[in-house]
Design a protein that fits this description.
The chain has no helices and 25 strands. The strands form 2 sheets. The chain has a 16-stranded parallel sheet that branches. The protein has a 9-stranded parallel sheet with strand order 2-4-7-10-13-16-19-22-24, with no helix packed on it. The radius of gyration is 17 Å and the shape is globular. 47% of the residues are buried.
C-alpha cells in the first residue's frame, strides 16, 4: 500500500525484458502513464485508484514508439484527465483488457490507436465520460505524428453482458487519411453514445475527405446494444465520408435504442 504522485510513470521504457506493474487496494497512483515505449510494458489493476494526471501536450500512452503496452483493468478505479492513446505511433501496439472496475474520462477523449495497432476489449465493468467533449472515443486519431502514415488498426469490442460504456459524446471511426481500418464489435453489453461518425474532425485543409485512401470504419452487431444518448435519426453517421462504411448484424442480433 502507498501513494505515487506526479510526473511520468514509465512501465517498460527501454531494454529487452519489459516490466509489469500490479496495483491493489488501497494504493493510489497520480502519475501520467507512459507504457511500452520501445519494449513491453503491462499494468494489472486489481483495485485501488489510478488517476492519470496528464496535461495537454504531455499525453499518456499504452504502447508507444516501437513497443507493446497492455493494461488489464480487473477492479478499482482508473481515470484520465487529458488525452491518452493505445498504440501511439505506427510501429506501436496497445491493448486494454477491461474486465471490471471503472474507467472514467474526465477531461479529454480516449484514442484507440494514434497510428499503430490497438484494441479495447471489454467484458465487464463500466466506462464512463464525465467531460463534455463531443468526441469521446477515437478509433484512430490524426493529431499524432504523420497524418498520412499507415497502416492503422483500431478495434473496440464489447463482449460481456455486464460491459457498459456510457458516453456523453460520439465514437469517431478512422480519423486518418491513409490506410486505416477501425471496427466496433457489439457482441454483448451496452454502448451508449450520441452517434458514430467517420470523419476528419480537424478539417485538414490540405487533405480533404475525398482524398482519403483506403480508410474504412465498420460497426458490427452480434448480440450487443447501442443506446443513443440523444434523439438522433443518423446514429451511424450521415453523408459520404462521415458515416460508417458498413453496419452488419450477425446471428446474435442487434438492439438499437434511439
Amino acid at each position: 500500500p502507498g501513494q505515487s504522485k506526479g510526473g511520468f510513470l514509465r512501465v517498460g521504457d527501454t531494454g529487452t525484458k519489459g516490466a509489469i506493474l500490479e496495483l491493489h487496494a488501497p494504493a493510489i497512483i497520480t502519475n501520467t502513464l507512459l507504457m511500452g515505449e520501445s519494449c513491453m510494458g503491462a499494468v494489472h489493476q486489481y483495485g485501488g485508484t489510478f488517476y492519470d494526471a496528464a496535461t495537454a501536450g504531455n499525453d499518456g500512452s499504452i504502447g508507444s514508439g516501437s513497443g507493446y503496452g497492455y493494461f488489464g483493468l480487473f477492479g478499482g478505479n482508473y481515470s484520465i484527465r487529458s488525452w491518452q492513446a493505445l498504440g501511439r505511433n505506427k510501429s506501436a501496439e496497445g491493448v486494454f483488457d477491461h474486465r471490471g472496475g471503472t474507467f472514467t474520462l474526465l477531461g479529454a477523449p480516449f484514442c484507440i490507436s494514434r497510428g499503430g495497432s490497438a484494441e479495447y476489449y471489454m467484458t465487464g465493468g463500466t466506462f464512463s465520460q464525465t467531460s463534455s467533449d463531443d468526441y469521446a472515443i477515437y478509433l484512430g486519431n490524426i493529431s499524432w505524428a504523420d497524418k498520412s502514415a499507415g497502416p492503422m488498426e483500431a478495434v473496440l469490442t464489447l463482449a460481456g453482458a455486464d460491459a457498459f460504456m456510457n458516453l456523453r459524446g460520439c465514437v469517431c471511426l478512422s480519423e486518418r487519411t491513409n490506410t486505416a481500418v477501425s471496427v466496433v464489435n457489439l457482441n454483448a453489453g451496452v454502448l451508449k453514445a450520441t452517434r458514430f461518425v467517420k470523419r476528419n474532425s480537424f478539417a485538414d485543409t490540405s487533405i480533404k475527405p475525398s482524398g482519403w485512401k483506403n480508410v474504412f470504419g465498420y460497426v458490427n452487431f452480434n448480440g450487443g446494444t447501442f443506446r443513443a444518448g440523444a434523439a438522433n435519426a443518423n446514429v451511424f453517421g450521415a453523408g459520404e465520408n462521415v458515416k460508417a462504411d458498413a453496419v452488419t448484424v450477425f446471428a446474435g442480433g442487434a438492439t438499437v435504442d434511439v
